[in-house]
Amino acid sequence: MTALFSLYHAPSASFPSTSFGTPLSTLKHLSSFPRIKRTLQFKRTLFINSLLSAESDPSVPPQVQTFWQWLREEGVVSSKTPVRPGVVPEGLGLVTQRDIAKTEREAGGRLPMATLYRHSSRVYQFYYILCRSEEELSEIQGTQLLSTTLDVKKYVQSEFLKVKKEVILPNRQLFPFPISLDDFFWAFGIIRSRAFSRLRGQSLVLIPLVDLINHSHTVTTEDHAHEIPGPAGLFSWDLLFSLRSPAPVKAGEQVFIQYNLKKSNAEFVLDYGFVDLMPGRDKYMLTLKISESDPYFGDKLDIAESNDLGQTACFDIILDRPLPPTMFPYLRLIALGGSDAFLLESSFTDSVWHHLELPVSRANEELLCRSVQHVCKSALSGYHTTLEEDEKLKEEGNLDPRLEIAVGIRAAEKKVLQQIETIFNERELGLDGLEYYHDRRLKELGLVGEQGEIICQPK
């Protein structure tokens, strides 16, 4: 695995190769380097153009030329640097200047870094950045992405008011220019989409140049960031950030990393503004809840909590994948009542979950099947288009990029919902063929014959 960069106290990532170093004491503020957005739009996007000829190539934006000049002046890059920013189909990316071997490592200059801290785990880049108008947001009506986007937008607005009151206004001398809500959204978006995490003593770290590296679904490992020991000065050593590649890269090719293997496409859109082609990205989060009005609420909550669940449980349903294994026991617990409530008695405390892993009774199984089908139908009715209409739009092509993403997200959610509905519809049709608790108990007592006939009813 070749190192693309080695940087003092930078984020975790790894790829084919170059080294830079900057001690923690030289960290600089975010404002010390120009605002370069990852996905600039260019007319010529079918080829990769390195900045080797930045002065003579009109396709390289002036902002990028200024950025590269700043990197050179700061000693971030040198003649040995194997990668440069380049105009690529994604907008901007890192392009190799020469072949990079799998185990190669290059030495380089020092790199100033910007370190930002998040004061909450709910820090996101928002789909708001992608969909600024109400018309654009209406294209994801009914989706979970829309509700998440609006929640995040509301959250960040409240955070901005708090920061403005507690930090900006009391320290006007530190902020020579006004900071607007749009500036705050921009900063949060930059953090979420470009910062590296999981570093020594840091929540998030921004690294100029390194953060231009793009994602590819063909990369199936997140092992691209490392911290390695390196010289921090004439007589001192510190940890360096090393960005590496898991495969060799030819000169002129773009290098990629895997941003996150676990995120859904909705999360990719929210964080990065694009969808990924990797299988398993299309998901729908099904939220189930034990009602507080349930006469057995307390008992059911105790059982759920003893099995690492709670009053509310969220299950990620992935397109064309089996349902989560704990989903059926939780559904049966919610539906438990009537003559089946004996399973909630203290004598079943240690075994109730085991019993819930299998059908309890026909009434219980029928109730959970119909409840889930109702939830799916209700969710599907919330979209302003049908799946067939979305598929037709995709087939026709020539969609605006933002609309194409919206159509893809809402179509994927509908496919998952229809999959869930089909599973429980088919299960309801087969209820008569299932074995329930009563049947299993009779077998355990030896009261059922070879053909399933009841030999004797227990007293």
TrEMBL record:
GO BP, sorted A to Z: methylation
Keywords linked to the UniProt accession: Methyltransferase, S-adenosyl-L-methionine, Transferase
GO MF, one annotated term: methyltransferase activity
Superkingdom classification of source: Eukaryota
Gene3D superfamilies: Rubisco LSMT, substrate-binding domain, set domain protein methyltransferase, domain 1
Signal peptide positions on this chain: none
Matching Pfam families: Rubis-subs-bind (PF09273)
Record-annotated SET domain positions: 74-260
Name recorded for this polypeptide: SET domain-containing protein
Native source organism of the sequence: Ilex paraguariensis (yerba mate)
